[in-house]
## 1
Amino acid sequence: MIVHRSGPVTLIGGAAVDATVFRLAMSLGERVVAADGGATTALAHGVMPEAVIGDFDSIPQNVRAALPDSVLYHVTEQDSTDFEKCISRIDAPLIIGAGFSGARVDHQLAVCNVLVRWPTRRCVLISEDDCLFLAPPNLALDLPAGCRVSLFPMGTVEGRSDGLNWPVDGLTLTPDGQIGTSNFSTGPVQLSVTEPKLLMILPVEHLGQVVDMLMHNPARWP
């Protein structure tokens, strides 16, 4: 572990992050970590990251020169993405990630892959419109009727739901078969799933209760 915190950590990636999203991410994390080129974004918003973790192929020379050696953690292996290098080395109850969507589809898919392969790391990724996270074994969210609720399986997974217009009960969700995007709530939602394979995507305006749920939900993946 490189970063050990008892509270949430904000992780900044290399994709563009507008000022509103950056402020939102900063308001939720007690410390800031940058994934490689995310250091450029952090400095552009006037924030010195506590740690910069990555293979350093995306940090311009002038940005690297502005960072003290004490915050630089160069991980040279090329078998993982910078997001995975970070998430595997941050010990915190929750990671709030910004700058991991929108720039390149392959990068965004790789990030989703890491969320599923590291289910013990609770992480929520935010953008201008969405918040995305791996569903824990069970959850409850007080969503209003008509709220968009998208469920995307990254592997074979089953579940039970209450409060969704199209329940998932009895369905086997797979990335190459039945998926659950563009569902919506009929009121408060309860969801339980059999495997750490299901990504949940909600409008970002519900981020606060998602963070509260992930921070305090005792149901965890082993």
## 2
Amino acid sequence: MGKFSLPAASMLAPATGAADQVGRDAAPARVQAVGAPASLKILHILRAPLGGLFRHVLDVAQGQAARGHRVGLIVDSTTGGPRADEVLARLAPKMALNIARVPIARQLGFGDIGALQFVAQRIASIEPDVVHGHGAKGAALARLAPRGETTIRVYTPHGGSLVYAPGTAAGGFYRVVERLLNARTDLFLFESEYIAQVFRDKVGPPHGFVHVVRNGVGDADLAPIVARADATDIVCVGELRSVKAIDVLIEALAMLKHCGRRFTATIAGDGPQREELVALTERFGVDDQIRFVGFRPAREAFAMGKLLVVCSRAESLPYVVLEAAAAAMPIVSTRVGGIGEIFGPEAGHLIPADDVAALAQAIPGALDDPAQLNLLARTLHARVCSEFTVDTMVEGGLAAYREALARRQIARLD
């Protein structure tokens, strides 16, 4: 591969000798797929160090490193702020292949050429066994960059381009891109059965090997949430953009106020719709009932309310629901994406998306019957603890890598 002129980037390196130590500590006795090395070299590529996608990559990368694999990350350098800097600095000593940061924009643009050059340079330098792209932009860079003969390309959507509304220009464009990149994908590692079916419906049959590995939570997520003294009736956690449907919650609270029921809410998150949503609370006359507190870590945000409301128009398998369920926090949620997979037999409690009246009915129905609400919370807690764990997620992903590596080796020999 030729030399590239690289864009400005930063590199977080592990402690001296960490790469050699990881290699020595790898467990050679572990059963391996044919031709796969005991210690894999794995490069994760993602855009923003924010939200559930970032949480997923952190958990997966640390779990892989703990099992003796050599892991590295490429992450956008323009988002995340001081919190992302701190989190990545703590992770760096565990990453034998380092953490590289380079500008990666959300939307397509000329800057993507520099990002792609950087990714290609890192792949050529590291020669990874696995290049794993997360989200629409991270996965596009992972699949467009050249790779070695034995390297597999892996794609986890996390919703991404698959949740753009049908009929929109952006949705149509990104689905065309997905079709073009389909053939450059060795392993589709979907995080829910729902998103796997969405891919088939919107893009077509996946070209590569398909495996579903659901997101998981760890022991730290199981501690109960203690509500703050100033906790509101409701808390919403997430980025302030249309897909999260905070506007529907605002209208539902206005409808309830008109009917003589006043409920308070905390909105924890930032995003492009913040000013629009604040103005909407004023227009509906509920600005004295709703506080916007900006970004907060999930558990800190949970303590600001008594009931988590998830009113999203679209999701994949959201961490906010998993984390709240793991902490036995009461939840009212829309029936979108893979949320039904989390609720399982209790999915009948979910409500339709974009339905103000249904949400206005569900909120008092939940808060007026705390015994039933807490019973559902305990049931979901037990389900998440048994079926949605970090260990299961990490092991499932590694098993899928090994099968995809074996399939690629067999294809090369045929």
## 3
Amino acid sequence: MNDLPEPSAEALALSQQLVAVIREEIAAGAGSIPFSRYMELCLYSPGLGYYSAGSQKFGAAGDFITAPELSSLFGRCLAQSCASVLVELGGGDILEFGAGSGRLAADILGELETAGHLPGQYCILERSAELRARQQETLVTQVPQLFERVVWLDALPQANFRGVLLANEVLDAMPVERFRWNGTAVELFHVSGSDEPLDWCPVETHGGAVAADVRHLVTEAGLAAGYVSEINMTLAPWLGSIAALLDQGMVLLADYGYPRHEYYHPQRSAGTLMCHYRHRAHDNPFLWPGLQDITAHVDFTAVAEAGSAAGLDVTGYTTQVHFLLDCGIDRLLSAVGPSDSVDYLKQAQQAKQLLLPGEMGERFKFIGLTRDIENPIPGFRLQNFLHRL
């Protein structure tokens, strides 16, 4: 990791403050804390966590580029799915989780305005005060005429939500448990280091929900001794809370991941945990806590199971390339202008990154969970891979 650029002195000072918070919790926790708690602190600790502090995260100056940051075509395509649901419901709202810079919200709202299918409200549930401010700046700049339609929430609505619940690259940032199957027992990776460098601390576990779920995976996927991976214990409760408030509409989730038989494949025996810093990826979550993103891929079979258990219909599962093609990305691109225009060529290049298998096209997936929706959802009509789950 010698190729990673050194953080500024100010950034390193913030990281050291977060490390002090983590060490205090480790000391209070009898010498270690679960990795899920460490990941939670690294990403969301108030004022110090990766998504809570003020560093640039998205785009060329940040640590990674998301699809909405890459091209407005992405959000305009998602608007086609949203419009279909809003039309069937005769109205409704959109609620986006973790709206990043606000680009996706701006692009969706702009496209829905053009189509004449604006939601009653566009709600954003955002934990980070810094990101809220950035979202407000983006929206008031890009769609000032629609800014009053946007509402920021501190918590989920209580009930009776009608419309679309949207989460783009949210699931991969949920804290996960990291485990190892040693052939006879489950070992959960804790983090230790109250008075020494932060490091892994495997703890053999025989009881509890995590051990039970991992043992189920061992049987279902045939995990060999020494297999290391992750499991998201937050996913099912999160989807349950969403299902409880959804009266009618769709939950649309986009992220990178696999169905379970690919996620826990023998070739993936070191797991999917990954860190992102200045457009470089590595696997050391203890480097500069709070200054780098920590993610894990999504088990989309678990998403489908949790959604179904919560009473939602698993309507569609497909790759990003098929989703965007079904939503008319080629039509939107052709409407930009003549093929020799600078803008067209720029957007065509962006579309390639969204669609090509070696870029985002196959790595990213979409899954749709619905309640009382009858019309086919744009995005899942061209190719629906529900059988792969």
